[in-house]
Amino acid sequence: MKSVLFGPSYSVYVRIAKIVLAEKGVAYDQAEFDVFDRNDWPADWPQRHPFGKVPAFEHDGFRLYETRAITRYIDEAFDGPALQPASPQGRARVEQVISVLDGHGYRPMVWEIYVERVSRGKTGESDEAVIAAALPKAELCLAALADVLGEGDHFGGAGFGLADAHAAPIFDYFVKAPEGQTLLKAQPALAAWWARVGGRASVCRACERENAS
User: Fold this and answer.
1) What is the CATH code for 3-77?
2) Each residue of 124-158: pLDDT tens digit?
């Protein structure tokens, strides 16, 4: 049964799916294109993703879009280690973490801090007001995540799971900005979590850097 992941490797959400596919040991093809360039979209992209975002996924003719749906399907449809806790409480924590990241973390941590400071900063175009406004949002998000993590090694369970996979590409971009490094250091438990997860083989491959573990 053939699996295809659609979307560019620079995308946080495509990277999340790639991490989960790697953790499950799923062989797949990737259809790369620039989501920001409509001229580069596959001809059927509006049918695959009516909102024009990424990723989308197809497995043996079954089509999906939305990262949360894709990663849960991959975890439940394929063999390999379970990436969701068995308990209702654990699954609720996973959903909570993913909701926090999507609703409160992704935009300030990636777009308003990493993109402004690192990507646009290369040409001297960083908007300092945008970065300044994003810092307390990111700080609050990190504090909330640290509270959920507690003294655990992973979000929602004893082992690496969907919430960790969802967080990893966001953190990978975030810590490339000096402000991200500073805010993360202020949360030692979360910094220790990133030290473990950031060097994981699946994360390193998806984020296109050398495996640190």
Assistant:
1) 3.40.30.10
2) 889 999 999 999 999 999 999 999 999 999 998 88
